[in-house]
Write a structure and sequence with these properties.
The protein has about 230 residues and is mainly alpha-helical. It contains nine helices and four strands; from the N terminus they run H-H-H-H-H-H-H-H-H-E-E-E-E. A hairpin with a 2-residue loop joins strand 2 (about 205) and strand 3 (about 210).
Length: about 230
Amino acid sequence: MGGFIVSLAYGIPVKARGDPHLEFSELSIRTVTEVSTPGSNFVDVLPFLKHIPAWFPGAGFQRKARELYYMSDKFRSSPFDKAVSNLGTSLNRPSFVSVALGAIDENSVDAEHQKQLVKDTAAMFYGAGTDTIVASILSWIWVMLKHPHIQARVHDELNNVLNGRLPDFEDQDKLPYLMSTLMESMRLAPPGPLGIPHRSTEDDVYGDYFIPKDSIIIPNIWYEAPV
């Protein structure tokens, strides 16, 4: 899955094993997941700790933040720079980056800004399109293994609709039972039940709640879908 996403975003061929782009990307995603887990750092609960020096005991979050800054910059830049260097050569492959950069008017006043947007968007292909997809597929497989009678009904529906051929997008509406099992497996085991912490940029009101500016907001997907 990771190799497919990298090729789609950057047009870079990747190795099945030991590919440097994939290995570094996976390390970066794991690090982001660790630091964004609610409660993983004291500074999330006691914001004043951000003012203590990095050498002070308990300030490991500052060193981790510097490491993450370096990793995020390399995560965004390394494959993008490789894709750009391949443009106009025999190594160039159609990709999101090649198509998006080709659509930018170099004479535009915001051409550089548009390139940065392409760079950031391409990075999100891997950041948002690998772990979540793999986790969703594994959750569905787990549910099917736990409930073989449900698996049998899904198999029957696939056989009746496809008649031995591979599925395509037009078959989705014809496979309601399969789609229901996919939705249910994601309800039972969503890939990110607490999402990613966000910060409010201004005072806001949501229902009966007043949310001050700079509040850290942690969504809970399980709130209205108890298991």
